[in-house]
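Operator note (shift B, R.M.): manual run for ABC-type xenobiotic transporter requested after the automated queue skipped it. Running by hand, logging everything below so the morning shift can see what happened. Input copied straight from the record, untouched. If output looks odd, do not overwrite the archive copy; leave it for review.
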Amino acid sequence: MPGAIHAEGLVKTFGDVRALDGVDLDVPEGTVLGLLGPNGAGKTTTVRCLTTLLRPDSGRAVVAGVDVLKHPDTVRRSIGLSGQFAAVDEYLTGRENLQMVGRLYQMRGKAAKERAAELLEQFHLADAADRPAKTYSGGMRRRLDLAAALVVSPPVMFMDEPTTGLDPRNRQQLWEVIQQLVSGGTTLLLTTQYLEEADHLAHDIAVVDHGRVIAQGTSDQLKARTGGERVEVVVHERDRIASTAEVLRALGKGETTIDQHTRKLTVPVTGGAKLLAEVIRELDGRGIEIDDIALRRPTLDDVFLSLTGHTAEARPGTAEDTGNTTDTTDTTDTEGAVK
Ligand SMILES: Nc1ncnc2c1ncn2[C@@H]1O[C@H](COP(=O)(O)OP(=O)(O)OP(=O)(O)O)[C@@H](O)[C@H]1O
Ligand SMILES: [Mg+2]
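Run finished. Output pasted below as returned.
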């Protein structure tokens, strides 16, 4: 039986760009699917097709039991959407924005007012409720937009990068709101650049690249696919990176990843703590000074990197070392794709 959101072979082209190249998705009722992927992977296009804003060239989608292509109006009544870019009316106050949404959904005046007040409180906007939205900060706008998507608590919600631009405290609060929503039975498809967010909120994660779902599973299942533990070393001096890579290549069980910028090398290993001790002995024997060394389980970052071959925008070929190592590029300038 198809879930609350079901897509089969969605294709969408824009001129020469094949934005969606056969997207298949299934989101069981009452669960959260996290859609992950690098910039331009097709996340927003998927959301727009599923929310009737865009007509796919081919494929099929069913949302809340209704065929999206055949009955878009009916689908619209069962869904809520918070887009990648906040859509609020600048000249209305926060309160007026929310009340207007309520009225659009045929709520009575009193009910719309009460719901608006409740959401303003929940999203910490009560103090600014009666100021025009154009005076709001980026994070406040984002919160207002999300509140607007929740006015009528629809059974199926779509959120495209809901927490981009929010500070850590507001992100945390939004996570709580989302968890409450889902515990109340809402089905949610959310896209995010924050792997930690998908890890925290999503029951299932679908990794999208070049318009296709290239992997789907729980966070643990995806991590298991990427292999077991890895050793991570931060060397003190940049010119010892190559000799450290040699050591890791000899003792590790796969490709060594080098981040020149942070002087961090990572290699998959088997053998746990014993192997870690061996690495330390070997580095010490060669007089290589290290700032940090750790044994850790794969993170979603590793999954993402190994599946898509890059963080958000890979710049291959810049590694000084030319063995079988890969330069993962500086992860701090990739629009927060890897945290
Ligand atoms: N209206 C459009 N006209 C032309 N090309 C488009 C249009 N919308 C999307 N594209 C292209 O389709 C591809 C997928 O875009 P999409 O917005 O779905 O990516 P995304 O995964 O949401 O990326 P991001 O993480 O940057 O938000 C990109 O190559 C984009 O340039
Ligand atoms: Mg997008």
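Quick read of the result: The longest helix spans residues 168-183. The CA atoms of residues 95 and 129 lie 5 Å apart.
Leaving this for review. - R.M.
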